[in-house]
Amino acid sequence: MGNWEENVRKVVPYVPGEQPKMDNLIKLNTNENPYPPSPKVLEAKLDMSRLKLYPDPAADMLVSAIADYHGVDKSRVFVGVGSDDVLAMSFMSFFNSDKAILFPDVTYSFYDVWADMLHIPYKTVPLDEDYRIRPEDYKCGNGGVIFPNPNAPTGISLPLESVREIIEANRDVVVIVDEAYVDFGGETALPLTDEYDNLLVVRTFSKSRSMAGIRIGYAIGQEKLIKYLSDVKYSYNSYTMNMPSIILGTASIADEEYFREQVAKVVATRERTTKALEELGFKVLPSKANFVFASHKEKPAKEIFTAARERGIILRYFDRPRTDDFLRITIGTDEEMDSFIEFLKDFV
User: Fold this and answer.
1) pTM, entire model
2) Are 177 and 147 in contact (CB under 8 A)?
3) Is the preceding omega at residue 150 within 30 degrees of 0, hence cis?
């Protein structure tokens, strides 16, 4: 046998949330929005005959819509196939120092996967005892900084002045703020992109816009950052955004009223669910996302996870240090959350 495996890039892959094929399922494990996309998305006209053509590589229709929505020039907007695509290309573009990049020890578990795959040195920075990011821990030499705000899986949001403090301490590297969940109550760092040329804010249509299945993510920063990111894209895959995504994403961002209504519904259900969980003996971290991170005072998280699955309720359990006592619970409809709470009343 040959030794070809010696030259294979070997990584431990990211494990996405389970997508089980079960009937009558209450799916609370992947932070999808329980409500459908805007009616404007469902009514958008797609000329299927155009699928024989390559899409616009610049995705100008969608980029322009996002730029107009946020009040920035379109030269400051980058789009990709979900925020994961945008983040992966950002790792390739901006994290090329010999120094370790920094991100929290309890955070989105794709960060260390990308770092390992791309041979980027990294250091995880411990959250404090209340599972919060401390800006002072990021005031050291590094090759770049990335963190979600609100954080995942904790749901805890960092105030804007703390985000500014981290950026001010890291003017010589790129700072990426991953705002996948910001629409559910967090404080966006987008205004800071006017001030800081090293700040990239990344967002997604998957959560608050109910479009996880169509895969749209975007980034906003100053023009030079976006140019560097685009150069990597065109060196990797010119046609990352397909034609249906461009059209449907543009339709979604045009329906502000529907967007606000659905976000408000999720937030109201989150607060009601948090109160119900606390009454059942759970510690619930203060969430500004479309999920809660909860730990029961007596029942181990893994037991609850297993028992819930047997009842057709799928949660997310992370068997890692500092998270193995918690469950991440996506906020579903009121009816779904009521069923989940009724299960817990019998179990805990």
Assistant:
1) 0.96
2) yes
3) yes
